[in-house]
Amino acid sequence: MMRARVAFSGAIHIATPHDAATARGAGATAPQATTTAREASATAPHSDVAPRDAGQRLLLADGRLVAGDEVVWLPPFEAGTIIALGLNYADHAKELAFNAQEEPLVFLKGPGSLIGHRGTTRRPADVKFMHYECELAVIIGRPAKHVRRAAAMEHVAGYCIANDYAIRDYLENWYRPNLRVKNRDGGTVLGPWFVDAAAVGDPSNLGLRTFVNGKLTQQGNTRDLIFDIPYLIEYLSSFMTLAPGDVILTGTPEGVANVMPGDEVACEIDGLGRLVNTIAADAVFGRG
Amino acid sequence: MSTAPTKIPFEVAPFRLSGAVYGALLNHRTAVAALGDRIALPPYNAAPRAPVLYIKPRNTLAASGDVVEIPPGMTELEIGASVGLVIGRPACHVSVAKALDHVAGYLIVNDVSVPHENFYRPSIRFKARDGFCPLGPAVVARAAIVDPDALGIRTYVDGALVQTTETAELVRSSATLLADVTEFMTLAPGDVLVLGVARPCPRVRAGQRVDITVDGLGTLSNRFVAAAV
Predict the structure, then answer these.
(1) What's the CATH number where A111 sits?
(2) Nearest-CA residue of chain B relative to A80?
(3) Would A26 be classed as within a structural domain?
(4) What is the total count of domains within chain A?
(5) How far does the CA of residue B218 sit from the closest CA of chain A (Å)?
(6) Where are the alpha helices (DSSP H) in chain B?
(7) Is B155 helix (H, G, I), strand (E, B) or coil?
(8) Residue-wise pLDDT tens digits, A236-286
(9) Chain B window 81-100: which residues touch A at a Cβ cutoff of 8 Å?
(10) Domain count along chain B
């Protein structure tokens, strides 16, 4: 249903939420309670901030029960090719002053940029605009080559939240956005949970929210994707074979804002939980 | 999926490729020269300051001897003959002086592309197709190569020499490129950083064989065929 990959006691484990209370504590909704949790979140978006770590328990595959803050959360699956979309929400494209596109803006990211829930991302001292991007990540479960739109969803294993950071200061007009902007160490946060496709149901009506230090800064819904998930799978698989573990980060809605060292950035998606990340200064990384 | 990384002989640590392959656009003087005045005009407006990178994902990886398919509707592809640095130790924020200490070895790379003249947006559709990154025939240990910035590269199509270049013509040398890239992204053992492709690129058509020979690194050979429709 939903599972995490965590490091604990010298090994990497697959972990599941211990009970419904734990799932709520992580900001995640138990799959069968998706609708209820979504409504609760819409009316009281801050309600799950306080118990986020306190009391959150995980059941490891070997039977141990551990607290969520005793483990290191890793990306919840072993990622293969990481495919990302730019400008895939009309409002965000407008925010950045781009016109409608005929073809998706697709770029790739490397495995070195990935970190998990509760990780730390560096903000270089010399930049003026570094922003989060809350995105629905679609994880491929079956090889996909020349897949038609109607059959595309059969190739989806599940979903997670992605926070796909960018530093706009480093934008240049060559293969834009380039890796210095979008493929920085710790710049792609995935998690906390891998949630089975069956538990999510319809991925085309999920609310997305980002909070910076508890303040709501970004809000959107996957129904506003310019190129939806079936289209993206059809498009990508028309020229490259997708394999299990490949992941598509589907783009972010409007509401990106600058973040500073010390800021806590939390991205939520209905039914997928709450992905928390902290911004740190150069000194933490032995630089500057 | 591609089995190329496990098929490529690699006799020094870490003994296998990770599957992550990064390439550097415009890191060959001929590639910059080919753009001429266009480099300063829209949509680019200026020459790049930082390395411009792209990724050859795992579906593109192929070994020497593998057959590469030319997608339906295309008559020819570009051959991007180059050398790849294979990382041996994690490389994060390395200095130019110490950069090559992080290299395990070198191999030949054919960075195949669908011909395209616009470099404004990432060209996944042109660079990330199945089989578009033959590598090999083997990783040659760093100790066996005296100077990675003085390697001759010769490309043959059906046995005829179509391009001669050398790594001395790079904009950023191997050590400088590694230092500049690892300023913002850590390269892991087994990752490959491709140094840059000369322009104009030779073209290959269905039915032809491409051999790329690099001093000390052997010959990477692949046959190109039309994809079944």
Answers:
(1) 3.90.850.10
(2) B58
(3) no
(4) 1
(5) 28
(6) 4-7, 29-35, 124-127, 174-182
(7) strand
(8) 999 999 999 999 999 999 999 999 999 999 999 999 999 999 999 999 999
(9) 92-93
(10) 1
CATH assignment of the domain containing B195: 3.90.850.10
Q: Indicate the residue of B53, B120, B128 with minimum beta-carbon distance to A173.
A: B120
| Alpha carbon of B143: minimum distance to chain A alpha carbons (Å) | 27
Cβ atoms of residues A94 and A255 within 8 Å: no
What lies within 8 Å, CB to CB, of B70 at 6+ separation is: B76, B77, B204, B205, B206, B224, B225, B226, B227
State the nearest Cα–Cα gap between B88 and chain A, in angstroms. Answer: 15
Is A106's CB within 8 Å of B122's CB?
yes
Domain that holds residue B157: 4-226
For A213-233, what is each residue's pLDDT tens digit?
A: 999 999 999 999 999 999 999
Element spanning A159, H or E: strand A156-164
* pLDDT at residue B22 tops 80: yes
Is residue B66 within 8 angstroms of chain A, CB to CB?
no
pLDDT of amino acid A265: 98
Q: Is B224 on the interface with A (CB under 8 A)?
A: no
pLDDT tens digits for range A61-97:
999 999 999 999 999 999 999 999 998 998 766 666 6
Residue A166 DSSP SS3? strand
